[in-house]
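Sequence in, structure out.
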Amino acid sequence: MGSQLGAFLREFARNPQRTGALAPSSPELAREAVLPIPSSGDPVVVELGPGTGSFTGAIQDRLSGRGHHVAVELNPRFAELLQVNFPAVDVATDDATHLASLLADRSIERADVIISGLPWAIFPDEVQTGLMDAVTASLCPAGAFTSFAYLHALRLPPARRFRALLRETFEEVVVGRTVWQNLPPARVYFARRPRQRSVDGLRPASSQ
């Protein structure tokens, strides 16, 4: 854990905008985020922005050797650390917007669960939209998507925009409990059943 925290802080110092947080997510937040992973079968689980592996370990614990766990990490230093610490994980050093092609390269059509550790609230509108398009293009119709938001940032425009994007994109969005043990405290979003695109390729208007 000490080496992971040290690596995280070094990368935050190099590029705080890309890292998005001052400290790794807590085990309590990780356990909440991985709840949609089914307890049986061989699901395909995709992890976006795993960083130093706070969610990675929880996903591996939940899978217990089942399925296929793909972790997409843009930062090569984090990706290398992940591959060393979690040899069973299929680590892809790439941008999350390339998710569909990354899965196709692995002969995977769709993911059953996509778990995001990306800092959505710091992304501009076009980046949020591009990432969400990659998620919906790669998630099976009955699949689940989870992400989280820091409590202190919920009222900021990017965080509000992300919540609106979730409700526009998915038929069901549930807000989890506040995880006070995280620094800073955070909530997990559980989203299911991505909406179908209209004929012209635009997202259908949200009814919520």
